[in-house]
Design a protein that fits this description.
The longest helix is centred in the N-terminal third of the chain and has 24 residues. The protein is globular. Helix 2 crosses helix 5. 41% of the residues are buried. The chain has a seven-stranded mixed sheet, sandwiched between helices. The chain is 47% helix and 19% strand. It is α/β, with parallel strands linked by helices.
């Protein structure tokens, strides 16, 4: 549950047409800067430790989650020509997309240049054929510099709860997605079972922040993580927001006792 202090600090940042709710009210740091600026600085800070922490805190399960979601994406979007991976981070999902779709062009977009520097370093070690099909760009997913109807498939892994304005970000995805195109979101979630939820909260709110501080040196980033997960809309709630933004055929599925959920939606033709 979010504190009154957090709500008071953020209540003036929304407006009547775009009120801030849920994870939009949870900032990485306590300062008054906009959430997007804080998220960018946070990921710049933890970029060197990001891949290690992903593997350590999920016990390597993040690869299973990714592959399960992309297996379904392949069924829904079997032959995309242009793919956009939002919040691409260090590029792992973009590289996996290039393997699954060997004829597709993949664009990885992220707010953090520190994360993209690592993605670019990985890209330099790829064969020329892969380097020619993947590009990484710094940019704001709430205001993308792409034309309408540019992509056949959009993916977002562990990124939407970091959006300063969730509906704005989803509406931007809808805009740049071609009619008939698919959206795939992978996001951490809180188990519904009370016993599992207790164990999850113990792990996410105490063990992960402790290890995160030790490894990344950022005392706040891995405390922000469970706070933003708990506050973000999940399952039916996020699916309903996707519908509000124009998407259809929305569906979700939780994995690993509810610790992660992936979502699919289609832009109507």
């Amino acid at each position: 549950m979010m504190s009154t202090e957090i709500e008071e600090k953020n209540e003036l940042k929304g407006n009547e047409n775009n009120p801030l709710t849920g994870a939009e009210l949870v900032n990485p740091y306590s300062e008054g800067a906009a959430k997007g600026e804080q998220v960018e600085r946070m990921f710049d800070s933890i970029a060197p430790a990001y891949d290690f922490m992903n593997t350590a805190m999920t016990f390597g399960l993040h690869r299973l989650w990714r592959n399960r979601a992309l297996k379904m994406a392949k069924r829904i979007s079997p032959d995309p020509k242009e793919i956009l991976d939002i919040a691409t981070g260090t590029g792992d999902l973009a590289f996996r997309l290039s393997e699954i779709y060997p004829k597709a062009k993949v664009t990885g977009l992220d707010l953090s240049q520190g994360m993209l520097d690592i993605a670019e370093e990985k890209l330099r070690n790829q064969p020329e054929e892969v380097r020619n099909r993947i590009r990484f760009m710094q940019g704001d997913s709430l205001d993308m510099k792409f034309a309408d109807n540019s992509f056949d498939l959009i993916t977002v892994a562990y990124g939407v709860r970091n959006f300063e304005h969730l509906r704005q970000g989803l509406s931007e995805m809808f805009r740049v997605l071609r009619p008939g195109g698919a959206l795939c979101i992978i996001e951490l979630s809180v188990p519904r079972n009370p016993v599992l939820k207790f164990g999850y909260n113990l792990y996410s709110r105490h063990i992960i922040p402790f290890v995160g501080r030790m490894v990344s040196g950022d005392s706040r980033a891995y405390t922000y993580l469970p706070e933003s997960i708990a506050a973000a809309p999940q399952r039916d709630d996020l699916s309903a927001i996707l519908s509000e933004c124009g998407f259809s055929k929305n569906a979700w599925r939780s994995l690993t006792l509810g610790a992660v959920t992936y979502y699919f939606a289609i832009k109507p033709r």
